[in-house]
Structures are given as C-alpha cells and as structure tokens.
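Allow me, if you will, to draw on your knowledge of protein folds for a short while. Thank you for your consideration; the sequence and its tokens are set out here:
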Amino acid sequence: MKKKIMCIVTAAMMAAVLLAGCGGNRSGGTETQSETQKPAEEPAAEKPAAEEPAKEPTAAYDAASFDAKEVYTPEEHQVTTVYEGCETFTQMLDREENKGKGYVNARIGDQDVLLVADQTYEYEPGKNAAIDAEIFYYTDEGPAYMDYVEAGGTAYPLTVKDGLLYVGGNHFMIKYTIKGDRLDVSEEVYVQYNENGDASYYYRTGDSAFADHDASEAEAAFERMFGELDEESVLFFDIIGGGAAELPRYEYPEDDAVLSAISDYMTNEISQDYEPAGVSIPGLDLVDRDDTDPEDVKVWGYFSVWNYDADGDILKMSSGGAYPGLFHVKDNKDGTASVISFDRVADGSDYTPSAKKIFGDRYEKFEKLSSDDEAREKARKETIKRYVEDNGLNISAYQDPGWDPVKLQ
C-alpha cells in the first residue's frame, strides 16, 4: 500500500503523544519519577489520611546525556548478499544466490553505490520501495560491502535527495553522506516522550554534538528534516531475476543543471518516439550557449538520443535519431533547471531554412559540427563508456545494426 510521506510528521507526533514507545524494534525513552512526598491534608474525620506521593515535573532537557541508541537500535546485521569474487555490480546481480532481492543504483555523497534489499514492498503500482538495505561500493578489487541501514517502517521508505540518504522512523531521522569508503552522518534528529507525553528533541550534525544544540533548535530541525521528505526522492528497487530492468537509467554525469535538464528531456520526452529499450542515452554536442538570462538560458546543439538493450556484454542499439536545434531552459538557481521549450530543426526540404533561422550567425559552426561524424561518434563513445563505468556494468562494447561492435576500451 502506498504511504504518503507528507503526512508523516503530523501522524508521528499524534501517535507519539498517545504512546510512549514507537513500533517494531524501536523504543521511546521515559523519564524516571522520584519518590518525593507532600504533606497530608487534615480530613474532617478523626483519623488522618495516608500520605500520597506526588509526581515530579518533567525532567529538564539534557542533550549532553542523550543516548541515541534508546531511540534507534538496529538489530545486529549479517550480510546476506553474495558479492565475493565479483568484479562488477552486474556480476552480483547475475549470482543465483541473490535472485529475488531488490536493488537500485544511487549516488550518495561523492560515491556511486549499489543498495541491495532482502525484501521490498509496493509503494506505488508497479514500483517497489524498501526500508532496509546493504550498501556496496567499488574498490580496485571489485565490489565491497560498506554498511547496512534500516528505517522504522514502511511509512519511511529509503530516500536519496540532494546526494543524501534519508533513514527515518516515527521518532528519528538520519541523513547520511558517504566520505571515501564510509557511511557518515550529515544530520540526525530524535524525539523522546515521557510517560506524560511530553516531548524532548535532540539534534546534531556530523560536525557537532547533541549538547551543542538547545531544545528549540532541535525541535525546529526535527520539523525541517521530516518536511524535506518527498515522494519523488524515494528509491525504487528492481527485483533481481524478477523482470527487473537490466540497465540503470542514464543520468547526466556533470554538475550542470541546465545540461542535466536537457539530458532528462531527451531521455524522458524524445525517447518516447521509439519502442521501449533497456536504456536511452542522449548525445549533447553543443554549438553555443547563452546564460545571460537565467529565465531563458539558450543552448544550441546537435542533440541525439540512442536506445540500447543489453546482449551479453554488448549494448546493442535498437533505435534512435538526431534532433538538432535550440533549447530554452530556466535555471532555477537552486541546483535544478527546467526545459521551457525546444526549437527543433525541420526535416526534409525545410531542414536548411529552419536550421539557418534557428542557429542564425551560428549556422556555419553548426554545419561544421553536423558534418563531422568522426567527432560526434567519438563523443558518443565517451558518453557510453562513462555510463558503463559510473554504473559498474559488465559491458565491453556497443553495436549499431549492421556494424561490428565498437570496443569501449
């Protein structure tokens, strides 16, 4: 059943007021009540009433003594994914012992990793999420195990947003990054409730301690971090050996929001003109670019999209084509961009007139680029090679129909 993330904060806090602990293998902390006494009141009867203990006020906020393990205590984990002896992530996915597990490629921090989950669940129709996963990365010897993460329930699917991995539950949220070969905390926040339902919030960053942040700051961080979750950032897992896509989606590899938006447009929109394939890989051969107006960044180029299916260790091109023209893109100045429109060069007898109109005084440069098949093929090969390397694929060549395979190395 699909879980709506945006309702999490409200639901979590309402539930927490009613229940002192959290579900599953998580437990909320409680405050200890001392045995203080209050004076007995004089009743009307001759016999004085027995003294009754009075409850102490809620214990004071004490971040210095806070123990996160009281709220977030993953069980001892034994690695179940077989990876020894594999040279690539693809070989791991080919192992019979790993059939039925969920997998997804992701970039966390500065590392491309593979997350493998023992179990997944349907988050949306046809899309599976997971609440726990083993994380693998590349070394010179091949894939290696890095760490294991576990969320607090299906309302908190594993999420990657802005290069950070979110792992959460009713009473906690942790944002991880990766530094080198280690999973590292970027931010973490917790809430504990005593038996009266009173909340105490705790917060720290990777560079600070819980004691460095007061109660109001911690509560604000708690609300902010839960508010950052969105359904678009949920990790969706394919099933090993269960009809999962053999090839990961192509992602533009550079830190350029404008070109990334154009790349996505090619793979999401233009590729729809063709029959579905394992992966669509665009070609962005640029003629010129004008960033003067961030509301309308103009990018002229010889754009293309090529669709491939894996056949053993060869990417075989099944369809594709060239789309020269001019992209209008809005730079949102927040690390994202959006395609406004695409002025495409016409086909047939209208090709040259429309190209001259679109490219203007850049037409000569465009004509030179469009006629240089060797340069564009070289760029295509480098794009495929980087895609294969970034995703750890066991691919050695690509091949166009009727042509010999082109070795990537």
